[in-house]
Amino acid sequence: MRAITWNIRRATEKSTAWKIFTDLNPDIALLQEVSNIPKNIRESFDIKFQKAISKTGKSQQFGTAILVKGKIIDKLPLSSEYDWVNRELEYFAGNLVSCIVQPDGYSVLNIISAYSPAWPIDTSKYQGVDITTVKLKQNSKLWVTEILWSALKNMNLVDAPWIVGGDLNSSETFDLTFSSGNREILDRMEALGFNECLKKHNGKSIPTFKNPKNGEIIHQIDHLFVTNSLFSILKTCTVGDELAIFEELVSDHLPIIADFENLKSAPSHIKDFIKRNKWVFAKTMSEIPHYYIVRDNLSDNDQKLFDEFDVFIKKNGYAKKFYSKQYITSVQ
Predict the structure, then answer these.
(1) Are the beta carbons of 227 and 193 closer than 8 angstroms?
(2) What is the pLDDT of residue 311?
(3) Distances (CA, A) of 175 to 172, 178, 248
(4) Residues 244, 246, 249, 251: is their CA dihedral positive or negative?
(5) Are 256 and 237 in contact (CB under 8 A)?
(6) Contact present, 166 and 113 (Cβ < 8 Å)
(7) For 86-108, how does the pLDDT look when each residue is reduced to its tens digit (9 = 90+)?
(8) CA-to-CA distance for 141 and 126, rounded, in angstroms?
(9) CA distances from 185 to 3, 104, 174, 206 (A)
(10) Which residues share a beta bridge with 30?
């Protein structure tokens, strides 16, 4: 399975970006600054698109999109524990586009395509409201990245694999000139259980942005985050061709391209088995939260399904360590 995220710089139907996009051949695409999508792309993908908001509160001429070869199967509402954040989530609905998808032949995934603009949120409207629990500690301003984090913090991140990516306008290298909290943004995502694919896979930040003022290519302001079950099956993560994209003025951003092993979905009758039976919280190991089920307590039919599920995991699961031993653990 291939997932990409890319700010395609207000690409119209005629933009060269779509030829590059087609050549990349993604199963899932998280796109930002999309103006128009060509007919051939619309015919090949199920698409969710919404126009981004401008600083003045008007809709931009471009928007944020999720494209999937397969089906968008449901909405994925974003919400926070704070009412004021929920108002911002509604306001920035076109910057934080989310849905539940099922690519052809793969498991169900929760997806967010994010576009955090280079301008901060006006906090003057929150006089008397405590926003410090959401705002970065190292930045005096409030950004859409923090609204996204507050929503993710309030979500169930274990019900399905997650992919969150986009143009966050946030790079660790910004912190080299002044402490602005960009590392803090990444630390927060990691604390939630997200892995930043490009940096973590390559062991270093990989620039994704060409500064239009001085031509420098030193900042990774685009990011692709996935939860552990996806990161454990990540094969490669790289960026698009600088010459084809920067030199040809296609975009000032490079796509991030991540390839994963197949994440096969469990058959429906096994999913029914999981939902139907009572799973017990392992109180004696509360420091490693997990649930279990005892085969001998099941009906004869469910014991057969238990054994079938065991075989399915061994064939389709992924290797993880539990203390010193390695096991094949469940797929979603």
Answers:
(1) yes
(2) 78
(3) 6, 5, 30
(4) positive
(5) yes
(6) yes
(7) 999 999 999 999 999 999 988 88
(8) 13
(9) 22, 33, 12, 17
(10) 5, 66
Residue 169 · residue 221 · CB < 8 Å: yes
Q: Which amino acid is at 230?
A: L
CB atoms near residue 292 (< 10 Å): 9
Length, in residues, of the chain: 332
Written as one string, the DSSP assignment of 195-235 is EEHHHHHHTS----B--TTT----B--EEEEEEHHHHTTEE
Mean pLDDT of all residues belonging to the chain: 91
How many other CB atoms sit within 10 Å of the CB of residue 283? Answer: 6
**Which domains can be identified in the chain, with CATH numbers?**
2-260 (3.60.10.10), 268-329 (no CATH)
Instruction: Check the CA dihedral 315-319-325-327 and report its sign.
Output: negative
Residue type, 290: H
Residue 61's pLDDT is: 95
pLDDT digits (tens, 9 = 90+) for 242-274: 999 999 999 999 999 999 987 666 677 877 888
One-letter amino acid identity for 186?
Answer: L
Token pair 């397969």 in the structure block, residue: 70
What tokens does 173 get? 């290298």
Residue 71: both structure tokens together: 């089906």
- Beta strands (DSSP E) in 104-228 are 109-115, 162-167, 194-196, 222-227
What does the alpha-carbon distance between residue 226 and residue 30 come to, in Å, rounded to a whole number?
13
10-residue mean pLDDT profile of the chain (332 residues): values are 97 95 98 97 98 96 97 96 98 98 91 97 95 95 97 87 96 82 93 96 96 94 95 96 96 97 72 83 74 89 87 64 62 50
Distance CA 187, CA 171 (A): 12
| DSSP β-ladder status, 46-53 and 59-68 | antiparallel
CB 169 within 8 A of CB 219: no
| pTM metric for this prediction | 0.81
Distance CA 34, CA 222 (A): 15
